[in-house]
Design brief:
The protein is α+β, with helices and mostly antiparallel strands. 46% of the residues lie in helices and 18% in strands. The protein has 2 domains: 90 residues; 114 residues, Mannose-Binding Protein A, Chain A (Roll), CATH 3.10.100.
Length: 237
């Protein structure tokens, strides 16, 4: 039995479809509005993020500049403290600001210890090592001029022991010599020669002979806080 489709039925179907289309349109519009709103929020958040990144970057640059200024200021203060201490040291060799052990000589960046008890070259090397130092090496003109000014005699030097005997060398000729490097001395034998200083020259003798010892090591940094407590340098220290 066939069903008769009336005008009212068609009208109802059209009305129902229209409502569905309108509902879909409304839903699509809401989705669009919501997406647009969320996109706006996202853009704002992105702007805030970029602003924060710029602020952090500027702060880092500022912190870097401040750090550099602090480093430069520290270097300048250390240089001034060292210069002032050296002036005080020239007046009083055992001044409390001195960066070298007691009775050691301070010159530029190094400390020099002179020990007059006579001993073999190897014992002299061991003495220096025990004091966290090494036998003196004359490796540049500044040290050479300092050594000449001290008029040293009969001190073992930090020259490597040698099997071939030499009578003497001029100190000026030995500055760039590779022989200043002291290798492991376990090979040292009784017939080897070692160098010692005699005023302007370097002489050689058996390493088993007994002579004085001169050691060298890096000076400690001058303590800035020790300089801040010093009174007027015009004699009232």
């Amino acid at each position: 039995m066939s069903e008769d489709v009336t005008y009212a039925d068609l009208k109802f179907q059209d009305s129902s479809q229209t409502k569905n289309i309108q509902t879909f349109d409304n839903l699509e519009e809401k989705v669009y509005i919501t997406s647009k709103t969320e996109m706006g929020k996202l853009n704002k958040l992105q702007d805030i993020k970029e602003e924060l990144e710029r602020n952090v970057s500027l702060q880092l640059v500022s912190n870097t500049n401040i750090s550099k200024k602090i480093v430069n200021l520290s270097i300048t203060m250390q240089e001034l403290a060292t210069k002032l201490c050296y002036e005080l040291y020239r007046r009083q060799t055992e001044h409390k600001c001195k960066p070298c052990p007691e009775r050691w000589i301070w010159h530029e960046d190094n400390c020099y210890g002179l020990f007059d008890n006579l001993q073999t070259w190897q014992k002299g090397e061991e003495l220096c090592s025990a004091k966290k130092a090494s036998l003196l090496k004359i490796k540049n003109k500044r040290i050479l001029e300092f050594v000449k000014s001290q008029n040293l005699r009969n001190y073992w030097l930090g020259l490597s022991p040698r099997k071939d005997y030499r009578s003497y060398d001029s100190m000026d000729e030995k500055i760039i010599s590779s022989n200043w490097y002291i290798r492991d001395t376990h090979y040292l034998t009784n017939d080897m020669s070692c160098g010692y200083i005699e005023k302007m020259y370097i002489y050689y003798d058996l390493c088993t002979e007994r002579r004085k010892t001169i050691c060298e090591k890096l000076a400690n940094p001058v303590k800035i806080e020790s300089m801040l407590t010093i009174k007027d340098p015009d004699g009232r220290l």
